[in-house]
């Protein structure tokens, strides 16, 4: 297990959080699924909870702010930023919609939320005392994120401009169009093309969480009120299932093909 306390490189998926009507119900669901423990923030943070693995933060769970009740329950992926205000300005100048402008989050850092030109929503995070996920690529942590849209060309162009992404084409002949993106030569996530065969879904970022056994984890999802949207299937990268939590938030679970040993 590798623990990271340094800020993530700009453009790298650095954090994910979930907004739900009942944070305690979500805590119980994800504790059962991933074994997470939780700390709960102060009233000033809206009682925002940090999910912990081995005592280190891996994701956050909170409730909508007053006036935002009824917002869809969903996971938001946050991309690291060296300067949120400047990145928001660049994003807007290149066709993004600013959903939440750059703002301070106490001493923890600065954030913003944008919808890229394809409509997929992502957060931006500039580290303060909170640098993001301290453990990744392990069971019970974030192991992959991907942006899926109806316009892969627009997505690749936008993120190349915003963060300097370079790409490796992973598309199969006659199959789904998909690229991985690199930051300073390190593969850090993916961008893919939604097709009519994929389904009538909105552009989105999808978070993948590692599990020890995909089929067992999918069964746990349903036992605790969630739904299996796409049953487990094998890929060269691991065994994957697409699921939804008890209030409909969509995410993926994966037993990686090369599962790291626990420390």
Quick structural summary:
The protein has 263 residues and is α+β, with helices and mostly antiparallel strands. The chain has four helices and 16 strands.
What does this structure look like?
The chain has 263 residues and is α+β, with helices and mostly antiparallel strands. Helices cover 17% and strands 41% of the residues. It has 4 helices and 16 strands. The strands form 2 sheets. Strands 2-3-4-1-5-8-7-6 form an 8-stranded mixed sheet. The protein has an 8-stranded mixed sheet with strand order 10-11-12-9-13-16-15-14, with helices on one face. It is globular and about 40 Å long. The chain starts with 12 loop residues before the first strand and ends in a 7-residue tail after the last strand.
